Amino acid sequence: MPRSARVFIENACYHIIARGNQKQEVFFETVDYEKYLQLLKKYKTKYHFKLYGYCLMNNHVHMVIDPGKPREISKAIQGLNLSYSIWFNAKYDKIGHLWQDRFKSMVIEKNDYLITCINYIEANPVRGNIVNSPLDYLWSSYKERIFDIKNGVLDVPELF
What we know:
Elements: E1 13-19, H1 30-47, E2 50-56, E3 60-66, H2 73-91, E4 104-108, H3 112-122, H4 124-127, H5 142-146
Antiparallel strand pairs: 1-3, 1-4, 2-3
């Protein structure tokens, strides 16, 4: 059965989810998370998308992006995840797929739900009983967004 085509809508945001193959871990050490964020910054610049929120969990990734060109979402996320996979497999002497299927993308309107979605993904470590507060989790956009930290990764949605 063929998979359904992606929906591309101008002036909308997207909730992106990429999960480790068979729910396996894709981040083991601090340097793994740092490498993914470094690559995210690179692909964000290359494909001119805005990143409004993210959360890197040990076996999956959430992002809220506002693409410059919606049809380039696939190229951007495929490039990001392929680059990370090559680096990860070399580092850990592994072969094969790191990510499960293709990434998921859900359309988000630029309204109050955008903020709700960002809050939802930043609270993922709390729901997963990893930390008691989103402030305590190092690998999400929560602190950057709340404390307006400028590191070149996170953008501020026009709603703010």
